[in-house]
Design a protein that fits this description.
The protein has 190 residues and is an alpha/beta fold. The chain has a single domain (3-189), classed as Alpha-Beta Complex (DHBP synthase). The chain has 6 helices and 9 strands. A 9-stranded mixed sheet has the order 7-1-2-6-3-5-4-8-9, with helices on both faces. Helix 1 packs across helix 5. The longest helix is centred in the N-terminal third of the chain and has 15 residues, at 3-17. The chain is globular, with a radius of gyration of 15 Å. The chain starts with a helix and ends with a strand. The relative contact order is 0.26.
Amino acid sequence: MTDTVQYEAQQAAKVIRKGGVILYPTDTIWGIGCDAFNQKAAELIRDIKGREQEKSFIVLMKDMEQLKRYVDHVPTEALTAIESTTRPLTVIYEAVRGMAASIYASDRTVAIRVVNEPFCQNLIAELDKPIVSTSANISGRSIAGDFASVPNAIKEQVDFIVNYRQEEQMNSRPSRIIKIQNGEIQVIRE
């Protein structure tokens, strides 16, 4: 872990603890995030993006231990998929406890990704709680593959911009999303 990663994670955590919204690099693309338990902050993200109320968010967690603290039942198929994937994988879970209301989909499920990105892991560890992750774009428009592509309208509305990986070209590809029902894996987004 570099000093930059640790410092930026500490600064972002301060903002999030106060109910703020951050712009940050994830393991896939540039994202907008906040405390996954703060309904007001989650609604602010929705306003910044111009996102419809029906669309839920992805939640990032630092490891399997944290995942098991918030999800009543983690299917074996999910564990196997997470451990064997070579690309970021988001899994939709039932029976997730305590998140802000707008985090849940209409069927009361939550999309969760265990991250491998050093900044995200540091930030989540610093907060000791999961964070919201949604692409840093205006809803319906193309995803920002690098920091320079993030719309100024978003940069101007967030409370903190992480000064890490801003010169890198990101993956530009959102995570794969799966849902497990009755032991069967359903691919939601390839």
